[in-house]
Amino acid sequence: MSNNAPYFLDTFDHAILAQLQDDGRITNQELAERIGLTASPCLRRTKRLEQSGVIERYVALVDPVKVGLAVNAFVRVRLDSQDDSTLTTFEATIGDFPEVMQCYLMTGDADYQLLVLVRSLAEFEEFLRFRLTKVPGVEQVTTGFALRSVVSRTRLPV
After folding, report:
1. With contact defined as beta carbons under 8 Å apart, do 31 and 42 qualify?
2. Which domain holds residue 36?
3. Quick one: which H or E segment has residue 13?
4. What confidence score (pLDDT) does residue 1 get?
5. Under a CB-based contact definition with an 8 Å cutoff, are residues 69 and 117 in contact?
6. Which string of b and e fits 5-31 if b means at least 16 CB within 10 Å?
7. What is the DSSP letter of 7?
8. 57-100: pLDDT as tens digits
9. What is the DSSP letter of 107?
């Protein structure tokens, strides 16, 4: 099976994923009780989901505003060329910018869309002027700022 192929999930697997997406620190015993299994098969299933890559990792979700990252910028980037070398260089460089929370290769009028989190507009200006626009191949940058979050989910609809 390729790494991108869908993984067969049964009812218990779906229940495990739903519970773990709500609380990644739940104990195996409590998880087993919530989904209607005993502890041993629940643990085996969870380990199989981890080993297969369905569960990538466990993280703590941090509120960006509470740690001072109040400015959300959605940045669309157009490159001067879409050849492999330009794309590879851009992707490698942008991956080193900690402000870039997400980066997607896009279709349409922009090559990439980024979600950038910073403390202030001044910090965003510095990021834009002295880092992003200096990446080789960047031709045009268009930015929109989020006024407020309406929907923000981490739980996948599995």
Report:
1. yes
2. 11-51
3. helix 11-22
4. 40
5. yes
6. eeeeeeeebebbbebbeeeeeeeeeeb
7. P
8. 999 999 999 999 999 999 999 999 999 999 999 999 999 999 99
9. S
Coil, helix or strand at residue 128 = helix
Q: Give the relative orientation of helices 39-51 and 28-35 as an angle to the nearest 10 degrees.
A: 100
Orientation of helix 28-35 relative to helix 11-22, angle to 10°: 130
The CATH number of the domain where 110 resides is what? 3.30.70.920
> Long-range contacts of range 94-98, CB-CB < 8 Å, 24 or more positions apart?
94/132, 94/135, 97/127, 97/131, 97/132
Which of the four pLDDT bands, split at 50, 70 and 90, describes residue 158? confident
Lowest mean pLDDT among 5-9, 30-34, 104-108: 5-9
The verdict on 79 and 107 lying in the same domain is yes
Picking from 53, 59, 19, 52, the residue whose alpha carbon sits closest to that of residue 35 is: 19
Closest CA to 76 of 130, 102, 113: 113
- pTM for the full predicted model: 0.86
The single-letter code of the amino acid at 67 is V
